[in-house]
Each structure stands twice: as structure tokens, then as C-alpha cells.
Design goal:
CATH architecture of the largest domain: 3-Layer(aba) Sandwich
Largest sheet: 4 strands, antiparallel
CATH topology of the largest domain: Aminopeptidase
Radius of gyration: 27 Å
Order of helices and strands: HHHEHHHEEEHEHEE
CATH class of the largest domain: Alpha Beta
Shape: globular
Strand order of the largest sheet: 1-2-3-4
Helix content: 40-55%
Number of strands: 7
Number of helices: 8
Distance between the termini: 63 Å
Structural class: alpha+beta
Number of domains: 2
Length: 210
């Protein structure tokens, strides 16, 4: 350690307010960790108005999106959501309708491909390719806690890859409420093209080809 370092270590830690309780302690930590503070480094840090040079940058939490096999427990979670006042308006049917169309009916007739969406090992919603009159349409439902974080986009991208690569589909459609700006932006971002507008149902029809 040079004489210059002995002067600038405690001085720089003092100015940038490190995590220790005193200047002496901060200087000791810097010496033990091997961090060296020079005049130029200090000036750069001060100009940026950043934290102490000895403090490592806080790592942002990575969002890992996974698609897992759809299980009965996931269906039950969604069934309960239809009774939740904050979510019920987002479903096209009520508790009994969901119980029949997504539960009982699917036992006998089911051509859909549905997966549970998990974010960092936590259940976050569902994504699916729904069968309707010879076509498969993309659909998803993400819990509010995970919205605005790119989860719907990434889950849909994985679902599209599954449809085109595993199921060998030639095209995948999407029917989205005109007022649902977020979902319309997502499908456009994923390469869908707007085919038409259903003014009666107030929906946009989208299509993506392989």
C-alpha cells in the first residue's frame, strides 16, 4: 500500500458513505478485501454520484419462465380465481361455467395443449393452444403479481415454439379484445399479423405462420 493509498482509502470511503460504522472500519474493510482507491477512481465515482466503490453492485433478480405439465391442482387454482372479485371479471364465464367447460367437458373432449407457467419455481398462470374448428389459437392468463415483467411474452414464445416445432402446426391464431392493448402489443411483438377486426365481438383476429 502506498502513502497515497493510505490517504485516499479512508477519504474516499468517507465521501461515498460505505456500509461500515466508521471511517477506520471502512478503511480496514477496503484493505482486507484488496480494493484500492485512486484519485481518478474516486473522482469518477463522485461524478456519477454512485455508492461506495467497495460496495459490489446489487444483482437484479433474474426472471426464469418455465412451462410445466398442466395438472389438476392448476385447474383448481383457476377455479378458485373465478370466485375472486378482483379476478372474476377477467374470465369469460363464472365458477360453474369454468367447472364445466374447463373441467368436466375436457375429460371427454380435449384437443387443447395447456401448460402451467412458473416463474422462478412459483406458479404464475397458464398458457395454451386452444383448439377451435380445425385451428389452434394462443391464449394465456398470468397472475397480476407477474404482469408487466415480460412473463406473458416469454411464456407465449415458448408455446409458439412448441406448436410449430413439436406439433408441426402451419399457423397459430389469436383472438384478442380490442381494449386489451397489452395483449395486442404482445402478439404483434411475437410476429403475429392482424387479419381482421370483429366489430360485433369487439375483437382483433391475429395470425402467425411458421
Amino acid at each position: 500500500m502506498t502513502d497515497l493509498d493510505k490517504i485516499f482509502i479512508p477519504f474516499s470511503l468517507y465521501l461515498t458513505n460505505g456500509g461500515c460504522s466508521s471511517v477506520a472500519e471502512r478503511a480496514t474493510v477496503a484493505r482486507i478485501t484488496g480494493v484500492r482507491f485512486s484519485p481518478s477512481a474516486l473522482l469518477n465515482e463522485v461524478r456519477k454520484g454512485g455508492k461506495a466503490l467497495a460496495s459490489p453492485p446489487e444483482k437484479s433478480k433474474m426472471v426464469k419462465v418455465e412451462l410445466r405439465k398442466w395438472r389438476f391442482e392448476n385447474f383448481f387454482r383457476f377455479l378458485l380465481l373465478t370466485l375472486n372479485k378482483s379476478y372474476s371479471k377477467e374470465f369469460s364465464t363464472n365458477f360453474f361455467g369454468y367447472l364445466f367447460f374447463q373441467g368436466i367437458k375436457k375429460i371427454f373432449v380435449n384437443k387443447d395443449y395447456r401448460f402451467a407457467v412458473y416463474v422462478n419455481n412459483e406458479f404464475a398462470g397458464s398458457v395454451a393452444l386452444y383448439y377451435n374448428k380445425g385451428k389452434y389459437g394462443l391464449g394465456y392468463f398470468i397472475l397480476r403479481k407477474f404482469r408487466g415483467k415480460g412473463v406473458a411474452t416469454e411464456a407465449s414464445r415458448k408455446m409458439l415454439d412448441y406448436g410449430f416445432k413439436e406439433l408441426k402446426l402451419k399457423k397459430i391464431t389469436a383472438e384478442i379484445d380490442i381494449k386489451n392493448k397489452a395483449s395486442n402489443r404482445i402478439v404483434k411483438k411475437l410476429g403475429f399479423k392482424k387479419i381482421k377486426e370483429n366489430k360485433k365481438e369487439k375483437e382483433f383476429f391475429w395470425e402467425k405462420r411458421k
